[in-house]
Write a structure and sequence with these properties.
By secondary structure, the chain is an alpha+beta fold. The protein has 16 helices and 23 strands.
Length: 502
C-alpha cells in the first residue's frame, strides 16, 4: 500500500518538494532557490528551464529524506506561482524567452490600450478580472509581439503556452515525448482569458489579446488524474494541481463559505470562500475559482492580493541594510513602543487590492528627527497589517462578509509582533496551523482525494491543528486613529507616476 503523497510547490523565489502521510504530517522537505532577473525597471523574470531542472533534482532528494521509494508514492500534486507566464517549443522542449512573473509590469501599454478602447466592463464581466499587468494574458501577448517567429509557430500549435503548473506537468509526463498540455481551472482563471462562469477559454478575450487558441492548454479541474509521471516518479499519477493561493486555502481546510486565509510570503494573498455562486464584488477585490474537484461544481472565492509584504523586509535587509537577516526585523521593531508617527506604503511597483493603482509608488511619511531604525522596522511590519485590513474592509463593503477569524500561513507568520498587530487591526482571532506549509499541503490534499488516499473533505478537516492563536487587544479608538493615519499615508502614494497637469 502506498504510504505518502508527494507535492511540488513552485514558488516565486524557490521550488520545493514535500511528502505527507495520511494524517497530513510532513515526512520530508527538499527546497532549492532559483535566480531572479531584473533586466529593466519593472521587469521581473525567471528561467523556466532552470526551474524545471531544480524540480527534477528535488524529487529524489525528498524521497531519500523520507527513506521511501517511488512505489510508496500514491500520487503527486502541484502548486505554483499563478500568473507567471511561460511559452515553450513543443519540439525541443525548451522555453522560448523568459518566464515573465506576476510581479512584472512591462505590459502596462497593452493594458492601457484595452482601457483606452473602453473594454474594461466587458473584460470584467467575462473574466471577473480588471485589465491589469498582474495577469498572464497580457504577458503572453507581449511575448507573442516581441519574440520573432513565435506567433506564426503558435498558430500552428508548435509553440505552447502555460502557467508554471502547465510547464511542469508537460515535462513530468514526458515533455516532447507525449507530455500532457493542461492547466487547472484556478490557474486558468488568473490569465484574463478564461470565462469565469463557464470555466472555458473565452473567444472574446482571445480576440482582444490576439492570442492563438492552438497554443493554449486544456482547462481541467483541480482534482483528477492529468497523466502519469516518467523519470524519477515513474508511474506516479499527477492527480491534483492548484494555484498556490488556492492551494493554501484548500490546505487550510477553508471548505465553508466565509472561511478565510491569508498567506504572508513575498506578497500577501487573502482569500475568502464564497460558495458555489460566482461573486460579483466591486473593483476592489477579485472573484476567482477557489477549487473544482473532479466533476463537482466549482467553489468560488474573492481574493485581495497585496504585492509587497515579505519583500519589504527583504528590502530593509538588502537595500537599506538596517537588518542582517529577515527575522531580525521583529527584534528591531520591538526596540520601540510604536511607529513614532512614521508610515511606510510599499507601492514599489504600484498597489494591488483594493486600490489597483499601477502608478502608485512607495512612500515613507511622518519622518522627524525622532525616527530611528526601530520605527522604520515597525512601520514596515504595520504596513503589512494595514494592507490586510484594507482588503478585509473591501470584502466587508462589497459582499457584506465579516470574518469570524483569519487563518494564516507563510514565512512571515513566524513574526509574532506582526501577527498580533494583524489581529489587532482586523479585530478578529488570527490562527496559524501546526503544518505551516499549507500550499504544498493543499496540493497534496487535492491529489490524495483524487486517488482515494483520503476519503473526503471532512477527513481533511480533522487533520487541522493549531500551533498559535493571536487575539485582538487594541482599543477601538486606537484602531480608528491608526487606520485614519494609514489612509492619509496611502493618499500620498497614489498616482505618483502620473505626470502632473500643466
Amino acid at each position: 500500500m502506498s504510504t505518502v503523497i508527494a507535492a511540488i510547490d513552485q514558488g516565486t523565489t524557490s521550488s520545493r518538494c514535500m511528502l505527507f502521510d495520511r494524517q497530513g504530517r510532513t515526512q520530508s522537505l527538499a527546497q532549492r532557490e532559483h535566480h531572479q532577473y531584473f533586466p529593466q525597471p519593472g521587469w521581473v523574470q525567471h528561467d523556466a528551464d532552470e526551474i524545471w531542472r531544480n524540480v527534477r533534482r528535488l524529487v529524489p532528494q525528498a524521497l531519500d529524506q523520507a527513506r521511501v521509494g517511488v512505489r510508496d508514492v500514491a500520487a503527486l500534486g502541484i502548486a505554483n506561482q499563478r500568473e507567471t507566464t511561460v511559452v515553450w517549443d513543443r519540439t525541443t522542449g525548451h522555453s522560448l524567452g523568459p518566464a515573465i512573473t506576476w510581479q512584472d509590469t512591462r505590459t502596462s501599454h497593452i493594458v492601457g490600450d484595452l482601457l483606452a478602447r473602453g473594454e474594461e466592463e466587458r473584460i470584467v464581466d467575462i473574466t471577473g478580472l480588471p485589465p491589469h499587468t498582474y495577469f498572464a494574458g497580457p504577458r503572453l501577448r507581449w511575448l507573442l509581439d516581441h519574440r520573432p517567429g513565435i506567433r506564426e509557430r503558435a498558430v500552428a500549435g508548435e509553440v505552447l503556452f502555460g502557467t508554471i503548473e502547465s510547464w511542469l506537468i508537460w515535462n513530468l509526463t514526458g515533455g516532447v515525448d507525449g507530455g500532457v498540455h493542461v492547466s487547472d481551472v484556478t490557474n486558468a482563471s488568473r490569465t484574463m482569458m478564461m470565462d469565469l462562469s463557464t470555466l472555458s477559454w473565452s473567444d472574446t478575450m482571445l480576440d482582444l489579446l490576439d492570442v492563438p487558441r492552438a497554443m493554449l492548454p486544456q482547462i481541467r479541474s483541480n482534482a483528477e488524474v492529468y497523466g502519469t509521471c516518467v523519470g524519477d516518479l515513474e508511474g506516479v499519477p499527477i492527480a491534483g494541481a492548484m494555484g498556490d493561493q488556492q492551494a493554501a486555502l484548500f490546505g487550510q481546510t477553508c471548505f465553508s463559505p466565509g472561511d478565510a486565509k491569508c498567506t504572508y510570503g513575498t506578497g500577501a494573498f487573502l482569500l475568502v470562500n464564497t460558495g458555489p455562486e460566482r461573486p460579483r464584488p466591486e473593483r476592489t477585490v477579485l472573484p476567482t475559482v477557489a477549487y473544482a474537484l473532479g466533476d463537482a461544481p466549482p467553489v468560488y472565492a474573492v481574493e485581495g492580493s497585496i504585492a509587497m509584504t515579505g519583500s519589504l523586509v527583504q528590502w530593509l535587509r538588502d537595500s537599506l541594510e538596517i537588518i542582517e537577516t529577515a527575522p531580525q526585523v521583529e527584534t528591531l521593531a520591538r526596540s520601540v513602543d510604536d511607529n513614532g508617527g512614521c508610515y511606510i506604503v510599499p507601492a514599489f511597483s504600484g498597489l494591488f487590492a483594493p486600490r489597483w493603482d499601477p502608478d502608485a509608488r512607495g512612500t515613507i511619511v511622518g519622518l522627524t528627527s525622532y525616527i530611528r531604525k526601530g520605527h522604520i522596522a515597525r512601520a514596515a511590519l504595520e504596513a503589512t497589517a494595514w494592507q490586510t485590513w484594507e482588503v478585509v474592509e473591501a470584502i466587508r463593503h462589497d459582499l457584506g462578509q465579516d470574518l469570524e477569524s483569519l487563518r494564516v500561513d507563510g514565512g512571515m507568520t513566524s513574526n509574532h509582533l506582526l501577527m498580533q498587530y494583524v489581529a489587532d487591526v482586523l479585530d478578529v482571532d488570527v490562527e496559524r496551523p501546526l503544518v505551516s506549509e499549507t500550499v504544498c499541503l493543499g496540493a497534496a490534499y487535492a491529489a490524495g482525494l483524487t486517488v482515494g488516499y483520503w476519503a473526503d473533505l471532512n477527513t481533511l478537516s480533522h487533520h487541522r491543528h493549531l500551533a498559535a492563536v493571536w487575539r485582538p487587544t487594541m482599543p477601538p479608538a486606537v484602531r480608528q486613529r491608526e487606520s485614519t493615519q494609514w489612509n492619509r499615508a496611502v493618499e500620498h502614494a497614489l498616482g505618483w507616476m502620473t505626470p502632473p497637469a500643466t
